[in-house]
Amino acid sequence: MLIGEYQSKLGEKNRVALPSRLRTDLGNNIIVTRGYENCLVIVRPDQFEALLKSINEKEFTLSEVRDTSRFLVGGAAEIELDNQGRMVLPKSLIEYANLKEDLTFIGLVRWVEIWSTDSWKERLDFLTNNSSEIAQKLEGIRNE
């Protein structure tokens, strides 16, 4: 199961090691793409294919469908980990997520997010301060 918070470093040549606990569940072939709130998202190829299918089933004449495709699919990279569990992140994704040396990986059951550690601390502060309100909104959505 993809859970937990892990620290890592972005090294020379834009290389970073995927934490071993996450690597066990994701495997050596992954998809990395833009995520919301300026993070990156890692999924297995089969999960990405399911996402593509769900997007492609929608009417492409809708601008929201095209924009979602542009955002998630247009920014995606197929990556194979080396035998030490490292990957090279594309420069465009590093720039999108404003990644610096210190990185935080967040396991979220079905996917993993990569954050700049500073950005993650800010987001976690927001979540900590607003968790009750967020849970109430989610409960309202679930009951609709």
From TrEMBL:
<dbReference type="GO" id="GO:0005737">
    <property type="term" value="C:cytoplasm"/>
</dbReference>
<dbReference type="InterPro" id="IPR007159">
    <property type="entry name" value="SpoVT-AbrB_dom"/>
</dbReference>
<dbReference type="GO" id="GO:0000976">
    <property type="term" value="F:transcription cis-regulatory region binding"/>
</dbReference>
<dbReference type="GO" id="GO:0003700">
    <property type="term" value="F:DNA-binding transcription factor activity"/>
</dbReference>
<feature type="domain" description="SpoVT-AbrB">
    <location>
        <begin position="76"/>
        <end position="119"/>
    </location>
</feature>
<keyword id="KW-0963">Cytoplasm</keyword>
<dbReference type="GO" id="GO:2000143">
    <property type="term" value="P:negative regulation of DNA-templated transcription initiation"/>
</dbReference>
<feature type="domain" description="SpoVT-AbrB">
    <location>
        <begin position="5"/>
        <end position="47"/>
    </location>
</feature>
<dbReference type="InterPro" id="IPR035644">
    <property type="entry name" value="MraZ_C"/>
</dbReference>
<dbReference type="Pfam" id="PF02381">
    <property type="entry name" value="MraZ"/>
</dbReference>
<keyword id="KW-0804">Transcription</keyword>
<dbReference type="InterPro" id="IPR003444">
    <property type="entry name" value="MraZ"/>
</dbReference>
<dbReference type="GO" id="GO:0009295">
    <property type="term" value="C:nucleoid"/>
</dbReference>
<dbReference type="InterPro" id="IPR038619">
    <property type="entry name" value="MraZ_sf"/>
</dbReference>
<comment type="similarity">
    <text>Belongs to the MraZ family.</text>
</comment>
<dbReference type="InterPro" id="IPR037914">
    <property type="entry name" value="SpoVT-AbrB_sf"/>
</dbReference>
<dbReference type="InterPro" id="IPR035642">
    <property type="entry name" value="MraZ_N"/>
</dbReference>
<keyword id="KW-0805">Transcription regulation</keyword>
<protein>
    <recommendedName>
        <fullName>Transcriptional regulator MraZ</fullName>
    </recommendedName>
</protein>
<dbReference type="InterPro" id="IPR020603">
    <property type="entry name" value="MraZ_dom"/>
</dbReference>
<comment type="subunit">
    <text>Forms oligomers.</text>
</comment>
<keyword id="KW-0238">DNA-binding</keyword>
<keyword id="KW-0677">Repeat</keyword>
